[in-house]
Every structure is written in structure tokens, then in C-alpha cells.
Write a structure and sequence with these properties.
It is a single chain. The chain has 541 residues and is α+β, with helices and mostly antiparallel strands. Helix content is 26%, strand content 21%. It is built from 15 helices and 23 strands. The strands form five sheets. Strands 2, 9, 10, 11, 12, 13, 14, 15, 18, 19, 20 and 21 form a twelve-stranded mixed β-sheet that branches. It has a five-stranded antiparallel β-sheet with strand order 1-5-6-8-7, covered by helices on one side. A two-stranded antiparallel ribbon has the order 3-4.
């Protein structure tokens, strides 16, 4: 066995070193000066744009910021992109087929139970279970067996070397749980009525549709090595509230009811920047706003109909008018900031072309026979539903898509639902078309989750069933080097955006934070999906 480098460079994800130059982002807040000694106490009020669901990665596909603070992982990542030990150090065999994780001594779950190698073994077994709900099990496909060596050491043996393993282990979807508490509460209650992680904060209260409250874990003594505060957090707690409407979120921080909000009203960004009470940070978001189809439902199972919609999309007016310039046109679900995996050729796929779109619909048998301007399906008037999550930005996007689809004779009906209802209907396959999105700093894993047929219905909501795509995904999973992996990721984009067209990317948004000047130590960065709270403190009023 050889000791793994203490700092493993994030080569494939060194995506945003020049992010501020690319987006005109405000400089990130610097460290507190010598006169700004952190103050202990206070409850931070945080306004979210997406409603939290259960904090159980084995029973949901959507996490929220609080998950970062409730759980820790074996591996973490520095603000400059290196993978470093967190709960455990690790060694690897010379052939890369065995990883041994050794837990740091003294770590405890929120319940007080010690963290042992049995919890690590349990996690790996749950994550790679092919029959489990966990939608990201493809990221563990290289794992062959897991065994407890001693109380603190776990041996993970691989079928082949996996250069992507540090990434998946760093993410919130690889958080370490207490299996005893999980078994006691059950998968449905765990993550709602109770959580037993190792993070700097503990779950205090969760009322879906209202608020999520976490409180300081006073026993916390195993912070990541790169944060200043190595003990319990300075904050007493954090209260998260969900605002589906951007204007309400913006009004809340301007009224002093919130200390931090994400995604303010885009029309107000410049005005908020000019307010001396706030710091506004913009950075590229590892995300895409998309629309996708249920390929098991006619006529969306005909790629010509999907391609017709693709030809109807005009992206630049959406960026200019809907986003006030706060976004980037998307032709792949991989953002162009991921230079090592992005396929530039996608910009030439399915250009805006109304005549071509109408011709494709006609070939698929969808024609306007009664002259009302809209095509019929199976000889009858057709008004397909487009499911839309109840977020103002996504609703506005859906309205633009609806108007653009009308130009080629498709009359879309917008059905706005909350996140839980959207999830239930898409899991059941009870939809035809959906405006969707992801926020994730590994777009290659998103493609695995969204497109591999073995992930139906958990994360492959479009029901994409393509033997060719499955083959490329399996080749990507089996890659033993990062360059080889990147080749397959580009091949996946060529298939998805060049022919299958089961998912249409529309734009890549920006991450925008509005932060009260009473908040110190809060520094979003390009290598952390959810900003850390170890060093955050509140100035006394």
C-alpha cells in the first residue's frame, strides 16, 4: 500500500480559476482583519430558492445547503480544488485497486455514538446496492467489495482503478450516517424527523413548506484542515426559509428579515450591488436549466418531435430579457467552464429554424389540419402538459418556452407544482415534458445519473433507453485515467445533443448571493457547491 497524496489536484475540475474575469463577478470577501475578532452566538437567517426535502441521500435526489453542515464525508476539497482527508486519511495499493480509509480517532455522531469503520462499510454497501433507490450508485460501480479491517480502518477493493472516486466521496451524496439511527427511524422518517451525522451543526427542526433549523454541535472537533475555526461553529444556528418567488426573497433581505439570500430578482442585481448594506457575489454556477421529455409517452417517444422543439428554442433573447444578462447560453448540459469535458461542437446542433421544426413535426404525423395554428395529435386537438416547479425563474422560462413552441404549432399547457408533487409525478412517469435543472459540480456524473437506463426512474426521469448511450456510460465508468474518461464524456454529449435530444439545455445560470454586511467569514467559491459555515459569524447589532 502507498500513501495517497495529501493534496490531490482537482485537474478535471479546475474550472473557475478565472471565474471573476469570465463573469464580471464581484471579488469574494477577504478574511476578517485583526480588529474583526469572531463573535460567538447568533442565528443566521438564510433564504433559499429551492425548498428543502429530506436530508437523506438514500431516499432523495435533491439536497440543500444544510446537508453540507449536518454531515461530513471521508474526503473533502479545498477552496483551490485539492482533495484532502476529512473524516479519514487514506492509502492506495500500487495497482490502484484497493483504498484503505482510516478514520481519525474520537469522531462521534450527533447521538454520541462513535464513528467506526462499520458505518463506513455500511455506507458503501448502501451506495452501491443495485436494487437501492440511491440514484448515484453508478458512481460506485467500480467498487467490488468493502470490508472492516479494524475499528477505524475500512478496505475498499475496486474492479478497476477509478480516477473519479475522490470526487464522489467528497460530495454531500457520500455523507456518513449512523446506521443504527437510520435503522431505528427508517428511510422515510430519517432525514425529516431525525438525522445522525457528524457535522458542525445538528438538525433541530424541519417543517416541510416552512423552515429548516440547524443548531451548533458543541462536540465538533474535526473540521476540515483548511478552515480557520477548528472547533464548534461560531453561530448558534441557522434558520433556512424557502422563497419560491425571487421578488419575495429580495424583499426579505432588504427588509432585514434575512442575512443571506441566493438568487435575488435578476432585475435588481445592479441596485443591490450599489446598496452599502450588502455584498453581492456572482460566480459561474455548475448548473443548467433544461427541458426534458418522457420518452415512454407518445409522441415524445419520437425523436423528430423532440428535435422539432430543439429547433424552436432561441437562447439569446432568454439571456438578454429574462435573465438581464445574468447567464450563459447552453447547448450542452455540461457548462463550458468545464473545459476538459465540454464538447464545443454542440453549439452547432439544432440551430433555431422554424421551417425545419415544422417539417420534422409533419414527418412525425403532427399537422395543423383545422387551420387554428396548432398541430393535432392522433387527429385530435393537442395541448400537452409541461410540468413546472414553483420557482419564479423556472416559471418564467416555461412561459418563454411555451411561446417559442407555439411558433411551430405546439400548444403547451403549463402546470405549476411544488417540488414534492413534481418528484412524485416524474417518478411515476406521469408527465410528457418538464422544465428541469440541476446544480452539481460534476456534470459528467449528472449525465450518468440522467441518461443511464439502469437509473430509471430514480434519476433518469426522461426514461432515456439507448443501448449506445449505456455503452458509453459504462466505458466512462470503467475509465482508468481522466483523459480516457473525458473522451467518453464528450461522446455522451454528441449522442444526447446530436441525435437523442431527450434533454434540451437552454442556459447556464450564475450563482448570485446577497449578503448582509453583518455577516463575516462567508465566502462562496468555485470549488464548493454549498459554502461552508465553519468560519461564519455575525456582528452584534
Amino acid at each position: 500500500m502507498t500513501e495517497a497524496p495529501r493534496k490531490t489536484r482537482m485537474g478535471r475540475r479546475a474550472l473557475m480559476k478565472s471565474a471573476a474575469l469570465l463573469t464580471g463577478a464581484a471579488a469574494l470577501p477577504g478574511p476578517a482583519s485583526a480588529q474583526e475578532t469572531p463573535v460567538k452566538g447568533g442565528v443566521l437567517r438564510y433564504g433559499l430558492s429551492v425548498e428543502p426535502q429530506r436530508m437523506n441521500q438514500l431516499n432523495t435526489t435533491w439536497m440543500t445547503d444544510a446537508t453540507q453542515h449536518i454531515y461530513d464525508r471521508l474526503v473533502t476539497r479545498t477552496p483551490t480544488g485539492e482533495y484532502v482527508p476529512h473524516l479519514a486519511t487514506w492509502t492506495t495499493s500500487a495497482d490502484g485497486l484497493e483504498w484503505r480509509f482510516k478514520l481519525k480517532p474520537g469522531i462521534k455522531f450527533h447521538s454520541g455514538d462513535p464513528v467506526t469503520s462499520e458505518a463506513v462499510r455500511w455506507w458503501f454497501e448502501q451506495a452501491k446496492d443495485p436494487k437501492g433507490f440511491f440514484g448515484f450508485k453508478g458512481s460506485y460501480s467500480a467498487v467490488d467489495s468493502v470490508a472492516v479491517v479494524d475499528e477505524l480502518t475500512t478496505s475498499v477493493k475496486l474492479k478497476q482503478p477509478d480516477p473519479n472516486l475522490p470526487f464522489i466521496l467528497y460530495t454531500v451524496y457520500s455523507s456518513i450516517h449512523n446506521p443504527k439511527t437510520y435503522a431505528r427511524l427508517g428511510k422515510d422518517a430519517y432525514g425529516v424527523s431525525g438525522v445522525d451525522g457528524t457535522g458542525g451543526f445538528k438538525l433541530k427542526e424541519f417543517t416541510p413548506g416552512d423552515k429548516l433549523v440547524i443548531e451548533r454541535n458543541d462536540a465538533y472537533a474535526w473540521a476540515p484542515p483548511f478552515v480557520k475555526n477548528q472547533g464548534p461553529p461560531h453561530l448558534d444556528g441557522i434558520v433556512y426559509r424557502h422563497f419560491a418567488d425571487d421578488a419575495s426573497r429580495t424583499a426579505a433581505i432588504e427588509a432585514g428579515d434575512m442575512d443571506i439570500i441566493v438568487q435575488p430578482t435578476l432585475a435588481d442585481v445592479d441596485r443591490l450591488r450599489a446598496n452599502p448594506n450588502f455584498t453581492v457575489i456572482s460566480k459561474p454556477m455548475p448548473a443548467a436549466r433544461t427541458m426534458y421529455f418522457n420518452t415512454e409517452v407518445a409522441p415524445w417517444n419520437d425523436k423528430r418531435v423532440r428535435q422539432a422543439i430543439a429547433h424552436s428554442i432561441q437562447r439569446k433573447p432568454i439571456i438578454d430579457r429574462l435573465l438581464f444578462g445574468q447567464g450563459v447560453e447552453a447547448y450542452s448540459i455540461v457548462p463550458p467552464t468545464f473545459k476538459d469535458m465540454y464538447l464545443p461542437d454542440t453549439t452547432g446542433y439544432f440551430p433555431y429554424n422554424i421551417a425545419k421544426a415544422k417539417a420534422l413535426l409533419a414527418e412525425a404525423g403532427l399537422k395543423d389540419s383545422d387551420g387554428d395554428g396548432f398541430v393535432e395529435f392522433q387527429g385530435k386537438p393537442w395541448e400537452p402538459e409541461m410540468l413546472v416547479i414553483a420557482l419564479s425563474e423556472i416559471t418564467q422560462l416555461a412561459q418563454v418556452v411555451q411561446a417559442q413552441a407555439a411558433r411551430i404549432g405546439i400548444k403547451l399547457k403549463i402546470v405549476q407544482l411544488d417540488g414534492q408533487s413534481i418528484s412524485a409525478r416524474t417518478l411515476a412517469g406521469d408527465f410528457g415534458i418538464l422544465t428541469g435543472f440541476y446544480l452539481w459540480d460534476g456534470p459528467d456524473t449528472i449525465m450518468d445519473w440522467w441518461l443511464y437506463s439502469g437509473n430509471i426512474p430514480a434519476t433518469n426521469r426522461s426514461r432515456t433507453r439507448s443501448p449506445e448511450m449505456d455503452k458509453v456510460i459504462e466505458q466512462m465508468r470503467a475509465s482508468t485515467t481522466l483523459p480516457e474518461r473525458m473522451t467518453h464524456i464528450k461522446a455522451m454529449q454528441k449522442l444526447l445533443h446530436g441525435d437523442l435530444c431527450t434533454i434540451i439545455p437552454i442556459y447556464h445560470p450564475l450563482d448570485i448571493y446577497v449578503i448582509s454586511k453583518r455577516v463575516h467569514g462567508y465566502a462562496p467559491n468555485s470549488a464548493t457547491l454549498y459554502p461552508r459555515m465553519h468560519d461564519v459569524w455575525l456582528a452584534k447589532a
